[in-house]
Write a structure and sequence with these properties.
about 150 residues; mainly alpha; Ribosomal_mS35_mt; structural constituent of ribosome
Length: about 150
Amino acid sequence: MNDIKQKVEIKFNELGDMCERGELEPEEAYEQFKKFEDEMVAEYMKIMEKEEVPVPQFDDTAVLDKKKDSDDPPGEGPILRYEHREENRKDCLRTLLSLIEEAGKANKLVDDARVSYVKERLRSNPAFMERLHAKCMRLRESNQVTA
């Protein structure tokens, strides 16, 4: 199993490097990787067949759940009554809300970085700065005349 994981990782990195060098378009790399991945799944299935891993068999004589309260969730393990499930749901919603807030903050940081980068690129362009300065001066003059 580990050798298959290594093969997949090597192929993924190889295709990524080819994309970065411009030798391959991302769509082509994706298609090649999907094809390779399918080959790896087929190879893994052949290995599993050779090892003859027994497939779990399910029969109808399984132990029935003997819970008395229909509010209990099915299966084994700790029983979560309605109140506990409600608290769990609230905790999940709080966590989700905080993740959404963090994502919003991250988007704001990315936007700020992008704006800063563009501003620096424009400031480093003397022709643009000259045109911008001239336009600002014309706007100030027109505002003073109308005032």
